[in-house]
Design brief:
alpha/beta, two-stranded antiparallel ribbon, 6 helices, about 30% strand, binds S-adenosylmethionine
């Protein structure tokens, strides 16, 4: 998977390539999809949600331009796979999931795998995680139709947010947003992607 779907598709950051080889994706997919765990495509994880394609995980991680010890906010914990990739890079990860059972399963899974530097919260990630702001980087793995203002405010100056933005059910544009100062942000498109929508309904079950 790493040779063909990560390096072969243009990821060059050695640290990202290494962690993509270290994180056991099979531990994050439902049993019925185990045989496809190392295929380079998204897979269902229940509740109408997916674990992202490994290449997209690597692409977004590389784009965050992280350093060991950085604090990163993730919106859309899902299976916990992206959080584990960040944690393997030595990042302190704060991740929010809107569907209760997915948040619970991801919390247990990450604990069992020994990722002590990931904090999972159940709730609506639209508002970010004020108590731990500001973040060195923010990664959004579900697509809103606009960039949430609270997330822009919770980014450090010089920090990067990677976020897919676009209509529900269609293709979205992946944006790389750098906070230049208190007021100004620079946005660069990274191309078209397809993510599940960022929803606003907190589900307990
Ligand atoms: C493509 S999946 C994320 C994949 C995940 N990063 C992984 O590695 O498995 C998107 C996730 O975002 C969650 N989500 C959608 N809207 C949300 C919101 N407002 N706040 C937090 N999570 C949300 C979905 O429930 C879903 O689990």
């Amino acid at each position: 998977m790493v040779r063909t779907g990560i390096v072969g598709w243009g990821i060059t950051d050695p640290a990202v390539i290494e962690v993509m080889g270290n994180v056991p994706r099979h531990a994050f997919v439902p049993e019925e999809y185990l045989s496809q765990a190392y295929n380079n495509h998204p897979l269902p994880i229940g509740y109408g949600q997916t674990i992202s394609q490994p290449y997209i995980v690597a692409l977004m991680t590389e784009a965050l331009d992280l350093e060991n010890g950085d604090r990163v906010l993730e919106i859309g914990t899902g299976s916990g796979y992206q959080a584990a990739v960040l944690a393997e890079l030595g990042i302190d990860v704060y991740t929010i999931e809107i569907i209760g059972p997915l948040a619970e399963t991801a919390t247990m899974r990450l604990q069992e795998l020994g990722y002590t530097n990931v904090m999972v919260r159940h709730g609506d990630g639209y508002y970010g995680w004020e108590e731990h702001a500001r973040f060195d980087a923010i990664i959004v793995t579900a697509a809103p139709d606009h960039v949430p203002q609270p997330l822009l405010e919770q980014l450090k100056i010089g920090g990067v947010m990677v976020i897919p933005v676009g209509p529900v059910g269609g293709y979205q544009e992946l944006w790389h947003i750098t906070r230049q100062d208190e007021e100004n942000y620079q946005s660069v498109s990274m191309g078209g992607v397809r993510f599940v929508p960022l929803t606003r309904e907190v589900r307990e079950e």
